[in-house]
Amino acid sequence: MELVTITDIEAAAERVRGVAVRTPLVLQTWDPRGTLWLKPESLQPIGAFKVRGAFNAIATLDDDRRARGVIAYSSGNHAQAVAYAAQRFGVPAVIVVPDIAPRIKVEATRSYGAEVIEVPIGDHEAKAHELAAERGLTLVAPFDDAAIIAGQGTAGLEIAEDLPDVEVVLVPVSGGGLAAGVGTAIKARCPRARVIGVEPALAADTAEGLRLGRRVDWPMADRARTIADGLRAQPSELTFAHLRKVVDDMVTVTEDEIRAAMRTLATKARLVAEPSGAVTTAAYLNHAAELPEGRTVAIVSGGNADPALFAEVLA
Amino acid sequence: MELVTITDIEAAAERVRGVAVRTPLVLQTWDPRGTLWLKPESLQPIGAFKVRGAFNAIATLDDDRRARGVIAYSSGNHAQAVAYAAQRFGVPAVIVVPDIAPRIKVEATRSYGAEVIEVPIGDHEAKAHELAAERGLTLVAPFDDAAIIAGQGTAGLEIAEDLPDVEVVLVPVSGGGLAAGVGTAIKARCPRARVIGVEPALAADTAEGLRLGRRVDWPMADRARTIADGLRAQPSELTFAHLRKVVDDMVTVTEDEIRAAMRTLATKARLVAEPSGAVTTAAYLNHAAELPEGRTVAIVSGGNADPALFAEVLA
User: Fold this and answer.
1) A111 contacts on B by Cβ (under 8 Å)
2) Among A117, B95, B278, B304, which has the minimal tally of Cβ within 10 Å of its Cβ?
3) Residues A27-84: pLDDT tens digits?
4) Is B231 found in the same domain as B149?
5) What residues have CB less than 8 Å from B99, skipping those under 6 apart?
6) Reported ipTM
7) Are residues B150 and B126 in the same domain?
8) What is the rounded distance in angstroms from the CA atom of residue B34 to the CA atom of residue B184?
9) Interchain contact A112–B (C-beta under 8 A)
10) pLDDT in tens, A156-165
């Protein structure tokens, strides 16, 4: 299987320049250890790193295919990222969402000019494939795609540029696109740094899978228990092959740790993080004994927190 | 009266490099006008732009004076900024705070190694002067100081570098240090841009003062009505002279507009803004008719919002 290379990620960085925000690394001066830098991907357009991969994937299509338009299935940040990236290119986007998706996310996706099609939960993947064939649209996968992995990897390239002597990079793991891309960039540019994946204990399929050396399948009903709704997916063959190569270790965090980290990020770092975006900070603050010491970057992957949940963790 | 120049601000930028975060300009893609960039100074160490001026002021002291230590009176962000900057230089800092200051702010100031002295409200300025004389400490003023103005101006320099064709810069006005410095930088580098100061209507002494062409004094009891606790000060002769020269117009916002802007910043920009940091966004969203059109930067000056207030505006 062909893996994404640092050259692919460098090419992606050229493409996403001016579209993805070059998010700063922010040293956290309140941290007594003094070794925590946050990378707030929550500041991206649509509020998550996903815009990097989506834009790169659409950018690498040939002109004819791109002009016909793109399609994605998602109820989360990938939906908005594809809608936004397609709008930047001025090409049509169709997003298939489960009809239980929060209205606010559906409206946000629509606001970027996408056609949103709501279907019963469970049908949305099949419906997307059907529409893609019918209308000649290109499916933009959420993570199982080399161009997506390379796009997400641009966040890792920026870490290597801004803190070349980084020692630990904490990255959330769900479908594995972000961890695959960031890990590839870090291993190429900062070979001494350790790349640690973070999962909720309630959706720790990758921690188990890497331990066993093969992908494992956790029932969706199990994975759905975590409040980190962005971390309920599982790696594909492609992303898992990357993770085996570039992730040194996995750490899992509890739901209480995630909520506490959201509060810390709000009050100490002044960032709105969604639960998935808070897991890396949760790992740093609660699992020091399991982590290598040293200059640590925690990727805050997204900030699309439900306002009611956010108010609750602050109270 | 000698005013701060762009050369002073450029020199300050060299000094604060690596201490102040080079905050990005973040285009807000949810805004239908598509002309709003935020500059999140809330991401600075201590959560506000104040670290720029405090660090520059301490950096410009001669070595002997600096080594003897610094003193400041403040219950707000300036206290933490001076404590943090002194810690970076490894010199003593004394912060005099009114004994009604929130515990959380006192603890934060102490966490940067400062000696915190609590005195009855109203006595803290006199006590600071007394201690400065007694112990040979240098008083770091919150805004009435050329080095502070030059330091705050580095935020304006970054705006000019990142968006050279900026058309409107919205900046909160309280003591006027930030507006004076940012306005000076913008007028030097982007002479066609308009610099607009923003105040709460409940503490609009500068809007009135600039209209009349002279400083006016609003009773503290009036200014204390606004929830924007960082915007209750009034310009000094020095900052007012800058504001007359570099501020093109003033806009005032209501308390409801400030709260709504805090919510918008949290949900759309994923930023925790304190009320003072939200006034510029409030102006952009609610006072378009009073503002020039075009590419607009709103400075989000700080993020030290009280968690209970923040939870309340989100609910």
Assistant:
1) 30
2) A117
3) 999 999 999 999 999 999 999 999 999 999 999 999 999 999 999 998 789 999 999 9
4) yes
5) B118, B119, B120, B121
6) 0.94
7) no
8) 26
9) yes
10) 999 999 999 9
